[in-house]
Amino acid sequence: MPTPLPELLALVPTLNSPDVPIVYAVEGDTIVARWDVVNAQTVYPTEFATVDRDFSVTVTFDEKKGTWRSKDHETQSTTSFGPGGIRMEKSFFSGKKVGKEFHLELGGLTRQNGELSPVLAWSFDTARIKKPLFAFLEQHGWTKKRGLFG
What we know:
This protein is mostly beta strands. It has a domain of about 100 residues. It is about 15% helix and about 60% strand. It is built from two helices and eight strands. Strands 1, 2, 3, 4, 5, 6, 7 and 8 form an eight-stranded mixed sheet that branches. The chain is elongated, with a radius of gyration of 19 Å. The two termini are about 20 Å apart. The mean pLDDT is about 90.
């Protein structure tokens, strides 16, 4: 028997840690995990660029069956101004995502998290946001809803 949903939702703040850039929150009867993966501005000798990437996981529940399902959302935008003009890109994703990425950029002067550096580096791993959340749900007796063929 899973932990009753109101009790489970009351425990969600225990997933948060001040040294991890992921926030787990309750919104109505759902859990939403948000990660501001990168938000940086870089100034090169001839160009100015910004990059912003956010990832979130929304968990919904079927109380009668004691199951949960998740959906991932991602937005990424980049903008650059330079001698070649202005370039803007924005992408959106909604569905299921599994993956790891690492980004390293040298040169220019980057402002990220209030600090300046000649290096822009960030990493992204979907397991970093999902693993603690999904383990929390399983620990409290909730089962992942299987798909059509699951």
